[in-house]
Specification:
elongated, three-stranded antiparallel sheet, three-stranded mixed sheet, alpha+beta, about 200 residues
């Protein structure tokens, strides 16, 4: 073999080795790129919402909660004020509930004071009795106008709803058995409601 042929053969062999090395390097680079591409996670556009929207929803919920809290506090304050006001009005009403009755009774009180002065100087007992009857009659009229009514008990059947039995005595007659034969203390209605039971003696 000639020297020139030998030299060409070595060059060819060298070129093939270089080509093989270059192909191997390119193959390694391609494999590395594929590995990198596989490691990158895919992005799902529908999987999550942006952080801005999440923060916005949270702020909306906080604002709504704060608004409801403020409404509750205002409502509680208004109710507390209403309760205080009604309690004060109720107390004032109780304090002046009998004002009208007291005002009307003042005239009767004046009559009693005048009667007392007359009694100290009176010489006619009948005139004194008549004066007392007039004052008593005036007092009853004032109270009747306010809804007070006397309870009629003597001769009526004993009724535990309006009578308070003190004792029993033998009935003067058979028709008075189980009925009220005497009255120790009058009973009264106020607008048809019992405000004092009559204390009575029952025939047995």
């Amino acid at each position: 073999m000639k020297f020139s042929e030998l030299l060409n053969k070595k060059k060819k062999t060298k070129m093939e080795e270089n080509q093989t090395t270059e192909n191997a390097e390119q193959k390694d680079i391609l494999e590395q790129n594929e590995s990198v591409n596989n490691d990158v996670p895919e992005i799902d556009e529908n999987s999550t919402q942006p952080d801005d929207e999440q923060i916005s929803d949270e702020e909306k919920l906080k604002a709504e909660a704060s608004e409801w809290q403020n409404k509750y506090l205002r409502l509680y304050a208004e109710f507390d004020n209403f309760k205080r006001r009604t309690s004060k009005e109720r107390l004032e009403l109780l304090q002046i509930a009998g004002k009208d009755v007291i005002v009307d009774l003042l005239t009767v009180l004046d009559d009693f004071e005048r009667a007392q002065k007359s009694i100290e100087k009176a010489t006619d007992i009948e005139a004194v009795k008549e004066g007392v009857k007039l004052v008593h009659h005036k007092l009853k009229n004032v109270l009747n106008n306010k809804g007070l009514k006397e309870m009629t008990s003597i001769g009526a059947e004993f009724d535990a709803d309006v009578h308070e039995g003190i004792t029993n005595i033998p009935a003067p007659s058979d028709d008075l058995k189980g009925k009220v034969v005497d009255e120790l203390e009058k009973g009264y209605y106020l607008n048809d409601k019992v405000i004092r039971f009559a204390k009575v003696i029952i025939g047995a």
